[in-house]
Amino acid sequence: MVLVGGGEPAISPFILGCVWITTVLTLCQGIQNNHPAQYRYPFIKPASSFSPASSASDSHSPTPAAYDYIVIGGGTAGCPLAATLSRKYTVLLLERGGTPFANWNVSFMANFHLTLADTSETSASQMFISTDGVFNSRARILGGGTCINAGFYTRASASYIESAGWDSKLVNESFQWIEKQIVRLPELSPWQKVVRDSLIDAGISPFNGFTYDHIYGTKVGGTIFDRFGRRHTAAELLESSDPQNLQVLVYATVQRIEFDTIGGKLRAKGVVFKDEKGRIHRAVLSGNPESEIVVSAGAIGTPHLLLLSGIGPKEELKKFNIPIVLQNEFVGKEMTDNPLNTIFVPSKTPVEQSLIQTVGITKQGVYIESSSGYGQSRDSIRCHHGIASAEIGQISTVPPRLRTHAMIHEFKQRKRNLPYEAFQGGFVLEKIAYPLSKGGIRLKNRNIDDNPLVTFNYFSHPSDLAQCVEGIRVVEKMLATKHFSKYRNNESVQKLVNMSVEANINLIPKHTNDTKSLEQFCRDTVLTIWHYHGGCHVGQVVNSDYKVLGVKRLRIVDGSVFRESPGTNPQATVMMMGRYMGVKILRERLGRGASEGV
Fold first, then answer.
1. Which helix (H) or strand (E) holds 572?
2. Strand, coil or helix: what is 201?
3. Running DSSP on this structure, what letter comes out for residue 395?
4. β pairing state of 265-274 and 253-262
5. Residues β-bridged to residue 3
6. Coil, strand or helix: which one is 467?
7. Which of 287, 481, 507, 590 could form a disulfide with 201 if both were Cys (CB 3.0 to 4.6 A apart)?
8. Distance CA 564, CA 336 (A)
9. What is the DSSP secondary structure assignment for residue 344, as one 8-state letter?
10. Which runs of consecutive H residues, i.e. helices, occur in 32-129?
């Protein structure tokens, strides 16, 4: 895919070839490139370099480091938040993963699938399987989900912004702050042009051209990939920080938040984190009552950390002998994942790789998107790879107790039966915009490195199932248009549906003889598009300013506070939220005038 971007020097085919060979030979097996360039900015260091007698502003201080803000999670929201706060205050940003800057899996679009395939402990993505039987991933890298997603950039709707109670002027300024730094205008690939035209012919109109805005109809959105196929992540927003005030530690896994009681009121005072060598450290807030710990660990990580820190349902904490700091029955509850279903469209000739560039925003409550092509070799399909991507098969992620010989044989056989043409074609995806099915997380143990038990209860609400059926019908109309004729090789839509059911996309029992029932198709082929959210809702866990109820100096800024996923793809709004809340916090402390120009 060729993308529009400005000012980058040309990269020779030889260099790109070397990068490709290195990536295929090593990173398919989960080996990362340990390169000095991974620490692009001087304020980024490994967690083992942390000294309790040094702070961001004074490395010779004889007293333990005390920060105005400690941000837990250097992800999609955490990076812009920390960069903004550092313009006026000292900030410690703690990220459990490494950096994206010398990670070829992350850096190049051609390796998008390999990022999800890498199941090693140092991977940028941490695989988990929900109790529903659906494969999923969590980001584990500085830059968060912007490092492992499909790069599509589109804003939340005006009604979403209004319902969130956000200042629309500051929201717009915050979006623009992001867009000026890392967002590009894509040049549509041939596949994406076909998707665009077929959406319009299927009735998803009007065509709104290129826009960041959320508008009914078909549109082209932005991308965080440049014209060389290089990814630009939220980690690059740290360049807008004050380097004298910011300290970023990677491979810093926060074990728990610590609290004290001053004047009879519970308040956060610091964090305990583990470095890459297994050593334990403590970092504390300054004595200023307005100093805060801000948790931006994501929709899984944030409620998980609250539970392990003693904030959550009493019975859940008692079960694991976790001292109860604050009883709150809503922590980790009412989580939602947007169900995704896809139909494969195989092609006998190679199709240029493209990730999401075009989207159909329907009035039936579903979004239609598509990806195409494959950035790796034919042999790479043998790797254990990601879910809604060209590689289909996840043996390495199945818990050992479930790896029966029969199950493994069935998995392998299904994968062999999927024609290679499917990898040369593409996928048309439909996502439920506002699912009503709810789930949550529960502790599995007290180890923060392990995934908690996650349940989403896909399609437990009948409305979600009805919307999925409507979405698949839109996809069927698209595939029946003349625009897909050069790709489809005369297969019937029913054959494509059958192929999709038989593919290795989840651990849910299949009903291959019942594909005429679209309801059953939706249940059998449900996937994730990694847009899960909730678990720390406003009015239940946090207030309207995202401060944790019942605790001073503790705030949450990430997708765990969302009741709905914003826009067709949430990364734009999550990054905006980090910037927005950073500016809002500065204005609350300093006044509007003092925060200008940050």
1. helix 571-590
2. helix
3. G
4. antiparallel
5. 186
6. helix
7. 481
8. 8
9. E
10. 78-85, 104-107, 112-117
Residue 136: both structure tokens together: 């999923």
State the pairing for strand pair 339-345/333-336. Answer: unpaired
Helix (H), strand (E) at residue 168? helix 168-182
- Which residues face 428 on adjacent strands? 343, 370
Helix 462-479 × helix 493-502 angle, to 10°: 130
Instruction: Choose the catalytic residue: 232, 281, 384, 531.
Output: 531
* Whether the model pTM is above 0.90: no
Largest CA distance in the chain: 75
Query: Distances in Å between the alpha carbon of 145 and those of 223, 233, 336, 354, 437?
Result: 14, 9, 17, 18, 23
* Amino acid identity at 326: L
Structure tokens given for 87:
């313009």
C-beta neighbour count of 334 within 10 angstroms: 16
User: Which structure tokens are listed for 69?
Assistant: 């803000």
Q: Angle at the Cα of 321 (from 315 to 326), degrees rounded to 5? A: 60
Active site residue 113: no
Q: Do 121 and 109 form a contact (C-beta atoms < 8 A)?
A: no
The Cα–Cα gap between 575 and 235 comes to: 11
What's the sign of the alpha-carbon dihedral 97, 76, 297, 50? positive
CB 118 within 8 A of CB 124: yes
Give 234's DSSP letter: G
**Phi and psi of 137, rounded to 5°?**
-145, 150
Burial (0-12, 13-18, 19+ Cβ within 10 Å), 18: exposed
Helix axes of 462-479 and 190-201: crossing angle, nearest 10 degrees: 110
Encoding tokens for residue 267? 């308040």
CB 439 within 8 A of CB 164: no
> What are the residue ranges of helices labelled H in 427-517?
462-479, 485-488, 493-502
- Residues ≥6 apart with Cβ < 8 Å to 444: 450, 451, 452, 453
Specify the DSSP element, H or E, that contains 158.
helix 158-164
Query: Which of 477, 67, 576 has its CA nearest to residue 283?
Result: 67
Question: Omega into 206 within 30° of 0, i.e. cis?
Answer: yes
